[in-house]
Model the fold of this input.
Amino acid sequence: MLKTKILLVGYGNVGRGVIKSIANNPDMELVGILSRSPERVKKEFNAVPVRAMTEAEAFISEIRPDVAILCGGSKDDLPKQGPVFAKLVNTVDSFDNHSRIPEYFKSVNDAALAAGHVSVISTGWDPGLFSLQRVLAGAFIPGARAYGFYGLGEKGGLSMGHSDALRTIPGVADARQFTHAVPEAIETIRRGENPVFQPGDMHTRECFVVLKPGADREKIVETIRSMPGYFAPYKTTINFVSQEELDSKYKGFPHDGLVIAAGSTGNGNQAQVEFRCIWGSNPEATGNVLVAHARAAVRLAAEGRKGAMTILDIPPSYFTQLDRDELLKHWM
Amino acid sequence: MLKTKILLVGYGNVGRGVIKSIANNPDMELVGILSRSPERVKKEFNAVPVRAMTEAEAFISEIRPDVAILCGGSKDDLPKQGPVFAKLVNTVDSFDNHSRIPEYFKSVNDAALAAGHVSVISTGWDPGLFSLQRVLAGAFIPGARAYGFYGLGEKGGLSMGHSDALRTIPGVADARQFTHAVPEAIETIRRGENPVFQPGDMHTRECFVVLKPGADREKIVETIRSMPGYFAPYKTTINFVSQEELDSKYKGFPHDGLVIAAGSTGNGNQAQVEFRCIWGSNPEATGNVLVAHARAAVRLAAEGRKGAMTILDIPPSYFTQLDRDELLKHWM
Done:
C-alpha cells in the first residue's frame, strides 16, 4: 500500500492525538514533526525526524509530505501558520474560532490557490462534524434551525480552545475550562419551538485557573470575562485552584455534544434530528477527524483541486479507506 | 430566482411528500407529473400537467425538466425506470433494497454515463442519511462498526418498502408493516462491545394484513415469511385485520431511527456517535431528502459531472440553498 505521508506541525495535545490516530489508520504514515521546541519533542517522541518550525520550508523539501496537519492554537498560531503552510504543501487544520472563520478561510484560500494546494480548514469536532450535521439538518428539514450543545454530562466538557485562551493571559500558569449545556434550552428545541438563543442561553463556562506567583487576580478575572467570543457572551464561573488540584480533579480531555434540529414536514408532521457524540479524549477525537480529512485532502489534490475548503465541500466517501464497491455493497 | 424545474415520476405517498417539500423550498418548482394512472392523479392534483408514463420521452422533450424525481417502488418499478429515465434526464431516486444496490447502481450508471446525465440513486432516509452517518462514523472512529436501528418508539416505525412488498403478494388487499428495534441490541453497542449481529438480532417485523375475499391465508403467511431480504431474516409477526381496523388503528407514516457506532481512540478512550431521527411522516421526510438531492444533482450536472452517484459522492454544501459566504459565516 502506498501510504499517505503526513507532516505534523505542532506537538501539543491535538498533535499527540493525530499521532495515535495515524497508528490506527494503516494507509497513513507520519514522516516528520515541526515544533517550536524540537528538543522537547524529541525527548517524548523520536520515531520520526523532528525539526524547528523555522526550518519548515527546507524540511518540507527534504521529506516531501503529501499533507501537513496543523495542530497549533487558533488564537495565535493558525492565523499565521495557515497561509504560510498552504503555500508549501496541502494542509488540514482545526481552526476553531467560529467568528473569524470567514477571514481565515480567505487568507488560507488565497495562499493555497496561488500555490496550487488543497487546504482543508476548521475541521475536527466543532467546527467540523457539527458544522456538517447543522448544514444537513437545515437542508433536509427546510426552516428548522440547527443548534449545537456541549458538555451534556454532569462534569461538562473540557474545551481545549477555551483552555488555551485562558493560558495566554499574563499571570496564568495553567487553566482548564469546562463547558456546560443548559438542559432547559435543549428541551425548548425538542418541543419544536425553534427558539432564537443568544450563546449565553445555551451554555455556561466554568474556568479552573492556576495563578503564577504575584499574578493580579482581579485583572485576570476581568480579562477572562471580557474576552470577546470566548467568554464575554457567557455566564462564566472562575475558580482559582492549585496546580495539584487542577491535575488531580480536572484531568483528562473528556467532551461530548449534541446537534439538534426540530421542524416539520408537509402540514405540521414532526421532523427532528439529533447528532450526539461522546469522546473520552477530545484531542484524540479531533486527531481522528483531522487524519480522515488528510486522506480527503490528498485525494482532492490528486484530482487537481486547489484552494481552501471545509468539511462541507468534501464528498463523504473521500474520508474513508473503503472503495466504491465496498461502500455500495455494505455501507449504503 | 431561476428555479430548478422538477418532473415527478410516480404519484404515491413519496410523490405526495415530494410535492409538499417543493412547496417549502423556494428555489424549486414542480413542472409535471408522470403516472401510470394520470386520470386518477388529475382528480387529486392538477396544478401541473399530468401525463401517462408511456409518454415519458415526449413529455420530457416538451417541459424540459432539470431533474426527475423517481418515486416508484424499489421492488418492481425502479429497477426498470431508473435506467430508462437516466437516459432522458438527470434523476434522483430512493431505491431502498439494500442488497441489490450494487447492481442497480451499475445499470443506472451505464445509462447515465452514456447520456451524460447525473443520477443520484438510493437516497432518502435509509439508504441515504443513514448511509452517510454510517460512513462518517466508520471514517472518524477507525475500527468502530456502525449500526442502524428503526422503530425505537413504542409503536415502532412504519416501513413503506416492506408495506409495499406485502401489497405485491397475490391475495393481499392492503397491508402495513411496523419495524421494531430490539433494545438489548442497542445497549450492547453502547457498552462498546462492537457485536456481530445478524439482521434478526436487531429488529423484529410486525405485519398487519388485509386479505382479499377468498385469499389463501396459509400461502400468504408462507410467502411473507420466506420473502428474501424483506422478511426471511427476521422474527416476523403477521396479523390479519379488516380494512377498517388497518385504517383506524395503524394509520399514518410515522418512523424513527438511530445510527450508532462506538469504539475507542488512542489507548482505549471512549468514542461514540449517535444519529437519531424522528419523522411524523416518513414519506414527507423522504420527499425532503429527495428534493435536496435534486438541488445537488442539478448543480453537479451543471459542472459537467455525469453517471450514477450516491449521497456519499456529494459535497454536503450542494444540498443547501445557502452560499459559501453564508455557510462560512453562520454554519461552520
